UniProtKB/TrEMBL annotation:
It comes from Actinomadura rugatobispora. Keywords: Cell membrane, Membrane, Protein transport, Translocation, Transport. It is a peripheral membrane protein. SUPFAM superfamilies: Helical scaffold and wing domains of SecA, P-loop containing nucleoside triphosphate hydrolases. PANTHER family: CHLOROPLAST PROTEIN-TRANSPORTING ATPASE, SECA INNER MEMBRANE COMPONENT OF SEC PROTEIN SECRETION SYSTEM. It is found in: Membrane. This is SecA family profile domain-containing protein. It comes from the Bacteria. Residues 4-569 form the SecA family profile domain. Belongs to the SecA family.
Length: 569
């Protein structure tokens, strides 16, 4: 695949301009073709080792593109009897630059994808050719397999019938073919793993999408979900709020119904009534999103005949959209018919240029399918909002796993104190200061008094004392447990707490459209609703982070462990 620099530059160029460079590449590949035709089979296969040695010595993979493409063209000619025509070389070049090659149907996109896949595989990363479904993946892997083997590399196939060990073995191949569904669910399962032994993927370095229009645009908001049973506390809360929703009345003026958008909205009387029933002073759209989502679902079911929410229904453990999966790859490209008509979608949502590859066949009718860009972008941005947070979480979680970097406990301690004390106003009363210090003192012994904090001319000095108290207290705990057990405790506490926090965040994100609509933050699909949703998802993520930090620090100081027990206990 193209280097990062090439890919970023390509994203800012017009498709026509990139096409000129692709024509030049096709001409250069043609000019060296005879050199590869004369190679023996063993010499052709040995080229891969030579290419990889040059990359290891510091040469950029993109600088090998001409030779690599010529090698693929010759391997295909020998094994399949199919010689890549110049337009396919141009399409492969566009993909190697991180673009979408717009190639008409029956122009040989599957064969074209071998070109960038081989180039990317030379760097040794995880290269995935993503197809529409399992059948297409199986056909492409079987058909293209001889080409890869002639070049001395392995192509694998991910199918739904593979067990964990077999899946892990397939992902070790140089190039892996699989549907977005299979790869997407493997990504999610890996993000629920607790040890490296449970992982199957070896990364998401290069994604090459066959039939990109469907995966990037038509199915970009498709959700992949892993769910699990709800805990008793969740079921009890859902049941209680469903009962509360049942006491609200349309006739009494508690809420209004919007038939056009099939939504409900609380009226002032309904807000007051709901607050009285729940014994709260205000309804908070983010903090109470799950509960308000239940209320909205019950009212919608009553008014529109939709399905009643099941209080005992499963909770989301992991989630990613099709577009979010594609964005997770280090480098991304694809080929598709009709992509040029959606070039604005590719550019605005993925930062990718669409390159119109000339057809070798008579011009036919275009698809004529054009999205309403502003509305589509709002919907796609909202559907993929959590995907960006998922990527951040995945990176943090990978670092926590055994074998990763040591857990930065000192950083967590500093974040904990900053969270509780940052921006503490000077006008804060002594009772309020005592409350903050009591929260800290419940976690570990402190030497700072409320009077000192109130009178301190500089809060930073007090922060340093509180931090020193924390480090000293944790040092005593670490000595009691022993360094090895303390490190394992840190990893397990972080994994358990962050996983729980993420599940709660997913539940809020799922419920936010109903919660926001119920409290009057815009109609579903409107720009105001999208903006409100994005702000609320960001607030929910921040809330998740703060709760995780506080819970992790609390557990690290108070969880009971016996140094004499076996580690798995």
């Amino acid at each position: 695949m193209a280097s990062g620099t090439v890919g970023r530059l390509t994203g800012r160029l017009s498709g026509r301009r990139v096409l000129r460079g692709c024509r030049e590449i096709a001409d250069e590949v043609a000019s060296v073709e005879s050199d590869f035709v004369d190679l023996s089979d063993s010499a052709l296969a040995a080229l891969t080792g030579g290419f990889r040695a040059r990359i290891a010595a510091g040469e950029d993979a993109f600088d090998l593109l001409i030779e690599a493409f010529a090698a693929v063209r010759e391997a295909s000619r020998r094994t399949l009897g199919l010689r890549h025509h110049d337009e396919q070389i141009m399409g492969g070049a566009a993909m190697a630059m991180g673009a979408v090659a717009d190639m008409r149907d029956s122009e040989g996109k599957t064969l074209t994808c071998v070109l960038p896949a081989y180039l990317a595989a030379l760097e040794g990363g995880a290269v995935h050719v993503i197809t529409m479904d399992d059948r297409q993946a199986a056909e492409a892997a079987r058909w293209m397999g001889p080409v890869y083997r002639a070049l001395g590399i392995e192509a694998g196939l991910i199918g739904h019938d593979l067990e964990t060990d077999a899946r892990r073995a397939v992902y070790r191949a140089d190039v892996v073919y699989g549907s977005a569904d299979e790869i997407g669910y493997d990504v999610l399962r890996d993000e629920l793993a607790w040890t490296p032994d449970e992982l199957v993927l070896r990364g998401l370095d290069a994604g090459i999408v066959d039939d990109a229009l469907h995966r990037f645009v038509l199915q970009g908001d498709t959700e992949f979900l892993i769910s699990g049973p709800a805990g008793e506390d969740v079921v009890e809360r859902r049941t209680a709020w469903a009962g509360v929703a049942g006491s609200l009345s349309l006739d009494a003026g508690d809420y209004a119904v919007h038939r056009e958008t099939r939504s409900v909205r609380l009226l002032p009387q309904g807000v007051d009534r709901l607050q009285d029933l729940l014994g709260v002073d205000e309804l908070r759209p983010v903090e109470d999103a799950v509960e308000l989502g239940v209320v909205a679902a019950v009212l919608r079911a009553r008014e529109f005949g939709t399905e009643e929410p099941d209080p005992a229904g499963n909770v989301r453990l992991a989630r990613i959209t099709g577009g979010g999966l594609l964005r997770a790859y280090g480098t991304l490209s694809g080929a598709s018919a009709g992509a040029a008509e959606q070039s604005e979608v590719f550019q605005r949502l993925y930062g990718m240029t669409v390159v119109p590859i000339p057809s070798r066949r008579p011009e036919g009718e275009e698809s004529g399918w054009i999205v309403e860009m502003d509305r589509y972008e709002r919907q796609a941005t909202a559907s993929m909002a959590v995907d960006l947070q998922r990527a951040e979480r995945a990176a943090e979680r990978a670092a926590i796993m055994p074998g990763g970097e040591p857990v930065a406990v000192d950083g967590l301690f500093g974040e904990y104190l900053e969270m509780l004390l940052h921006g503490l106003p000077r006008s804060l009363g002594r009772d309020d200061v005592e409350h903050v210090l009591a929260r800290i003192g419940d976690t570990y012994p402190i030497s700072v008094t409320a009077d000192e904090l109130v009178r301190a001319p500089r809060r930073s000095a007090v922060m340093e004392r509180l931090r020193a108290d924390m480090v000293e207290a944790y040092g005593r705990r670490e000595r009691e447990l022993g360094a090895e057990l303390a490190r394992e405790m840190e990893r397990r506490v972080l994994l358990a707490v962050t996983d729980r926090g993420w599940r709660e965040h997913l539940a809020r994100a799922d419920a936010l459209p109903g919660s926001l609509s119920l409290l009057g933050s815009g109609e579903p699909g409107e720009e105001s609703m999208t903006e409100a949703y994005l702000d609320a998802v960001a607030d929910s993520h921040l809330m998740m982070r703060e709760l995780i930090v506080e819970d992790v620090v609390g557990y690290l100081f108070h969880i009971e462990l016996d140094p004499e027990e076996p580690e798995d206990a």
